[in-house]
Amino acid sequence: MKEFDDRTKQKLYQRLSGFLQPEQILVNEKMSAHTTFRVGGEADIFVEIKTSAELAKVLRALREEGICEPGRDYFLLGNGSNVLVSDSGIRGVVLHLSREYGHIEPDSADGTRLVCEAGASLSAVAHKACECSLTGFEFAAGIPGSLGGAVVMNAGAYGGEMRDVVESVRLMAPDGTITEKRAAQMHFSYRHSILKEEPLIVLDVTIALAPGSQQEIRAKMEELALRRREKQALEYPSAGSTFKRPAGYFAAKLIEDAGLRGYCVGGAQVSEKHCGFVVNKGNATAADIHTLIREVQKSVERSSQVAIEPEVILLGFD
Questions:
Q1: Do 95 and 149 touch, CB atoms closer than 8 A?
Q2: Once rounded to an integer, what is the mean pLDDT over residues 272-300?
Q3: Which of 47, 66, 58 is closest to 8 using CA atoms?
């Protein structure tokens, strides 16, 4: 990795300011402001990207400055709803697809499709689908993430997953090349896609839905929202479900059976409302959350002889 000393940061800032606005380039930016856990140290450089053309220019500038390796020299961030950033922060560049890169348009050739930019929130896509009387996306209305991030991890809830609705994805490679992949080429599986295998960035997604009753779609979204409020720990900062579901088991049940409901490390807690959630009770550090995740894994393996893996992406940890 290129060493990000103050001179390097200033040089890169000057380079990026040639085509971005100053407010789009943040130096030593606290990641706690950009993650739903509300923890995390500083990123050396945090870049807000509003268009695919800006993204291509930024990637070119990074390559020419020797900042070349995705996941090591630079990182892509969506809504920050499925990541835990360490207290020491992230060395390198964080690229953030802003909400401005979130246009949603019905496909003019077919009234059952939406073309959505990667920065769009899942909630916005769900409400646009409802507005257009299109059903099939209700499951994602309450997931607090961006569409790009949801495609990366094949996000899902209440029996639905992104692979059920994605028709095609337009992607940008680190060299700026743009390709399009059909859903069958995306290698979708449980919490996985080809984007876990290759350093590609989601630009936009074509979502294929079905005609439906707007009233029934809205009612379904409201029903699922109520179920979330009743059963999930939404009152505290978290990253949603913290652990993947092991084959044949439910992570929350395994954690409860291990006697960990309400278990705390510092300001981090296994939610008393939903054991699958690790929450920030208000004063947690990233180290508290990370330690709690590891202790839960060890306790569950001792209790049930089942290994559970974090669903949350860990950034800046050894």
A1: no
A2: 96
A3: 66
Give CA–CA dist 3/211, Å, rounded.
Answer: 53
Assess whether 191 carries a catalytic annotation.
yes
Banded model confidence at residue 282, pLDDT cuts 50, 70, 90: confident
Decide if 168 is catalytic: no
Helix (H) or strand (E) holding 191: none
C-alpha distances (whole Å) from 206 to each of 115, 190, 255 are: 5, 20, 37
Given the residues 191, 193, 271, 299, the one annotated as active site: 191
Partners of 280 in the β-ladder: 268
17 is catalytic: no
Work out the pLDDT band at 124, boundaries 50, 70, 90.
very high
Strand partners, 210: 135
Q: What is the 3-state secondary structure (H, E, C) of 200-260?
A: CEEEEEEEECEECCHHHHHHHHHHHHHHHHHHCCCCCCEEEECECCCCCCCHHHHHHHCCC
Q: How far apart are CA 143 and CA 317, in angstroms?
A: 25
Candidates 81, 241, 271, 299; catalytic one: 241
Q: Which of 118, 145, 140, 122 lies closest to 201 in space, CA to CA?
A: 118
Structural domains of the chain, with CATH: 6-97 (3.30.43.10), 104-216 (3.30.465.10), 233-315 (3.90.78.10)
Round to whole Å and give the CA distance between 39 and 238: 10
- Report whether 267 contacts 290 (CB < 8 A): no
* pLDDT, tens digit, 9 for 90 and up, residues 34-75: 999 999 999 999 999 999 999 999 999 999 999 888 888 999
